[in-house]
Amino acid sequence: MAVLKSEELRFSQGRFQLDDINIEFPEGKMTAIVGPNGSGKSTLLKLFARLLKADNGLVTLDNQPIHKYKRKEYSQKIAMLPQAKEVLPSITVKELVGYGRVPFQRLTGAASEEDKEIIAWAITETGLEHMADRMVGHLSGGELQRARIAMALAQKTTVLLLDEPTTFLDITHQLELMKILSRINKTYQITVIMVLHELQYAGAYSDNLIVMKRGEIYQTGKPQAILTAQLLKEVYEIDALIKFENNYPIIIPKYEN
């Protein structure tokens, strides 16, 4: 069953445009959107998050057009974590994660007991319980990204959108983050949709791949079925060997002497 889907979706901004995007995201699965810079990956995610408005077409969440949801109601169903950006350094991890509960709070903004329990849960799930009271400005890049993930988790939505969550992280923190997302997906059946540049992680951790090129969907399917040398050549314009070992793709570019 598709929890989120688009039909004939079109969007243009300046010289860039998305053309006839027809895709479905299966419920409870991890889907990675990959493709070269400028192919429309982040734009597509913003359309699903209602940060941008499509020119034509339809996007549905749980079989209901997304424009029919009230803003607060939509925020209770779908969480969007944009690309890494600065956050207030003078707040604690717990306070940052608490922002994820804003869509559920009343006008007073006071956290309920349920809010506090969910904040604690999100902090624990991302392995930050020992630094819940630490100032955000004192976190490493990997710790900060985990705190941002915890903030999105605290929304307690059924769908989580992530725009380049591994960008600016070293390989250790990238792997750590992907393992956290994979575990959360499998444990709680949260539908995870993420834009990634790293084909290795997209192939190893996602159930489905969406490959984009120049504002269009080039191919969709299981990673092992579509991650091929031909795809790398046609989409990324590189000659490379690719093979899978234990479901992990290994990509070796060909070099000319």
UniProtKB/TrEMBL annotation:
CDD domains: ABC_Iron-Siderophores_B12_Hemin. GO terms for molecular function: ATP binding; ATP hydrolysis activity. Residues 3-239 form the ABC transporter domain. It is a peripheral membrane protein. InterPro entries: AAA+_ATPase, ABC_transporter-like_ATP-bd, ABC_transporter-like_CS, P-loop_NTPase, Siderophore_ABC-ATPase. Its main location: membrane. It holds the Pfam family ABC_tran. Keywords: ATP-binding, Cell membrane, Ion transport, Iron, Iron transport, Membrane, Nucleotide-binding, Transport. One of its GO terms (biological process) is iron ion transport. This is ABC transporter ATP-binding protein. It comes from Niallia circulans (Bacillus circulans).
